[in-house]
Amino acid sequence: MSEPQSGAQRPLGIGIVGVGGIAESHMAALRVVAEGRLAAVCDIAVDLARKIGEREGCAAYGSVDELLADPAVEAVIVCTPNFTHEELGHQVLAAGKNLLMEKPLALTPNGARELRADAAERGLALMVGHSHRFSDQGLAIKEAIDSGAIGTPRFVRVALNGGWIWPGWQHWVLNPAASGGHSFHNGVHLTDLACWWMGEQADTVFSAGQHATSEALQIFDYLVVGLGFPSGGAAVCEISRGDNPRNAAYAEITVVGTEGVIAREWDAEGILAWLDHGLAQWAPDGVGARTFVRELQSFIDSARGAKPVVPPVDYAVHAVDVAAASEESLATGESVRIGAAA
């Protein structure tokens, strides 16, 4: 890990691998977090990387090897397609760099565990981008639960539904070999929230899906994941990218405890005009950027050894366990039992 400097610390030099859509959110956060700076970007689309480098005032490379060889890069954010995560993660860790991996950590439970072991052996921070833990609503619900306001959580329902967001039918997310399916790509956000709010890891998974946009899809663009917990609690996680109109977005959250209930029935509540953009705004004041600013600050703190990673790596591994079990359940129509992350 990076050693603390005497006096004021210089900004942590961060490299970004992959400059697609989600990288823009990380770069925007780096512009406002004083403790970090964008040192370099890389992408196999070299011209795009150079264009971003010029815009952000940082080095630009066409390969990961070049970026990792740059001494200004102390930590790395990986923003590439899911199927690349395991190989790139080991490459970054082998170079001695702290790592923020966009979710999911890997596409197999074994792959996730190997990355966890690699980071632990090298004494490096391994954080996974379960960004919903840093959202206003995610934090507010967790704070209410921790305060004892609803007693012990017994049931969670979280629905994050929206319209088609992918640019075309050949997008890698629609290829289950590349994305792992919706359980891995978007489902991990919801199942991680459910486990976080319940305060325990799931031990059973049952999933059902639909091809809402077209039967030609290779993945389910509408997915419901049911979770069972060792305590007897349960959760239902509903995720859709098949709603109409295309820019539709809707969130519904319920947490039932032994002493009360937390509920958000309409995520655009407080916004004067119904524009189908509730989910994208994350809060009535529309400041969704706070989510990535908080996430980046947390990553910098963990890279410097000041605070533990969020979520704990065991929960990031468990998210992969749940996603794999969900895809198995979709294929078999059966409930799948999993063990706690070890």
The CATH architecture of the largest domain can be given as 2-Layer Sandwich
The largest sheet, given as strand count, sense and whether it forms a barrel, is: 7 strands, mixed
Number of helices: 12
Q: By helix and strand content, what is the structural category?
A: alpha/beta
Q: Describe the global form.
A: globular
Integer tally of domains: 2
- Radius of gyration of CA atoms, rounded to a whole number: 20 Å
- Mean pLDDT equals 90
Taking the alpha carbons of the first and last residues, their distance comes to 24 Å
Give the strand content.
15-25%
Tell me about this structure.
This protein has helices at residues 21-30, 46-56, 64-69, 85-94, 109-122, 136-146, 176-179, 182-185, 187-198, 278-281, 289-303, 313-332; strands at 12-17, 36-42, 59-61, 75-78, 98-102, 126-129, 153-163, 204-210, 222-228, 234-243, 249-257, 261-264, 336-337. It has 342 residues and is α/β, with parallel strands linked by helices. The chain folds into 2 domains: 12-131 and 295-310, NAD(P)-binding Rossmann-like Domain (Rossmann fold), CATH 3.40.50.720; 133-283 and 319-337, Dihydrodipicolinate Reductase, domain 2 (2-Layer Sandwich), CATH 3.30.360. The strands form 2 sheets. It has a 7-stranded mixed beta sheet. A 6-stranded parallel beta sheet has the order 3-2-1-4-5-6, sandwiched between helices. Helix 1 crosses helix 11 (289-303) and helix 5 packs antiparallel against helix 12. The radius of gyration is 20 Å and the shape is globular. The chain starts with 11 loop residues before the first strand and ends in a 5-residue tail after the last strand.
